[in-house]
Write a structure and sequence with these properties.
Helix 2 links the parallel strand 7 and strand 8. Helix 4 (185-199) packs across helix 6 (237-249). The protein has helices spanning 55-65, 87-93, 103-109, 185-199, 208-219, 237-249, 260-271, and strands spanning 11-14, 17-20, 23-25, 31-33, 36-39, 45-47, 73-75, 98-101, 121-123, 129-132, 135-140, 152-155, 160-162, 225-227, 234-235. It is built from seven helices and 15 strands. The longest helix has 15 residues, at 185-199. It is α/β, with parallel strands linked by helices. It has a single domain, classed as Metallo-beta-lactamase, Chain A (4-Layer Sandwich). The strands form three sheets. It has a seven-stranded mixed beta sheet with strand order 1-2-5-6-7-8-9. It has a six-stranded mixed beta sheet with strand order 10-11-12-13-14-15. Strands 3-4 form a two-stranded antiparallel ribbon. The structure holds fe (ii) ion (2 copies). One fe (ii) ion binds at residues 80, 82-83, 165, 229-230.
């Protein structure tokens, strides 16, 4: 599947902060971003480790940005498979790296991965932070998340935020992942509302006022660049628009995802008889 999607190089999206882009098919003419990040400072940080589908590409892209021996931190946002694809190899290749995670991620990963090195970890809860040389990374609970272990990070030096599974939006072409402003506002808003409802359907039972205070607190950190695992990079007014999509979902009904009719259409396309070719002239 990976081979059908064009290669995309890492790109610097904030000072010393590089998006590692990968993609999966997302439907007709759409791609689902599967991003991670490398922060290349005094103590380089790998932020999430991609999906198994992209394992080889992820390794190649990440270590084109930073030498494995220099990596000091691997931040794991949560234990979902699309964020842990390169984790075991990254730990092996980066002997000087400390894994920032939490108890419950480790407990859940114990069911599917080889034993992780407890002596190379730090367990940090939302509200906590770690110092990586020339910057402090603050952990927080993102507005939208699909796993209980999820933490985002905020880089105090560059006002960069990793929002994990929040602000999800398919993109129609690869380059759109680097800048939300290359996409139509209404397209992005529709994508974020429907995809966030899939990611966090519990929004339907939220008290809007309580939830708004949480979202306000995150936005108030004062962010200049937001990257997420599954959407375009946000800057400028794109940031507030994205936060508003999260606020708007609170207390609203779940937006249904594609159902049986879509599956029937997909199967019909796959099963359609091949067109009859005219016989080649003798
Ligand atoms: Fe997730
Ligand atoms: Fe994800």
């Amino acid at each position: 599947m990976e081979s059908t999607i064009p290669w995309s190089e890492p790109q610097e999206i904030a000072p010393d902060t590089f998006l590692i882009p990968n993609f999966a098919p997302g439907g007709p003419d759409l791609l689902l971003p599967v991003n991670s990040v490398v922060i290349r400072g005094a103590e380089p940080i790998i932020v999430d480790t991609g999906a198994p589908l992209h394992h080889d590409a992820w390794i190649e892209k990440v270590f084109s940005i930073v030498d494995p021996i220099d990596v000091r931190w691997i931040f794991l946002s949560h234990d979902d498979g699309d964020h842990t694809g390169g984790l075991i190899d990254a730990l092996a290749m980066c002997p000087n790296a400390t894994l920032v995670t939490n108890f419950f991620s480790v407990e859940r990963l114990a069911l599917e991965k080889p034993e992780l090195p407890l002596h190379r970890m730090r367990w940090i809860e939302p509200g906590g932070q770690f110092v990586a040389g020339d910057r402090t990374l603050r952990l927080f609970k993102p507005p939208i998340f699909d796993g209980p272990t999820t933490r985002g990070i905020y880089d105090s030096k560059t006002a960069f935020m990793w929002a994990v599974d929040s602000f999800v939006s398919m993109v129609p072409e690869i380059d759109a992942v680097f800048d939300v402003h290359s996409l139509d506002h209404d397209f992005v808003e529709d994508q974020m509302l429907s995809m966030q409802s899939l990611v966090s359907p519990w929004h339907a039972w939220l008290d809007p006022a309580t939830y708004r205070r949480h979202v306000d607190d995150i936005e108030a950190m004062g962010v200049l660049t937001v990257a997420t695992a599954h959407g375009p990079v946000l800057t400028g007014d794109g940031i507030n628009r994205a936060f508003n999509t999260a606020r708007r979902l609170a207390g609203q009904p779940i937006i249904p995802g594609p159902g049986q009719e879509v599956l029937d259409d997909l199967l019909a396309q796959v099963m359609a008889p091949a067109p009859v070719m005219a016989p080649a002239p003798a």
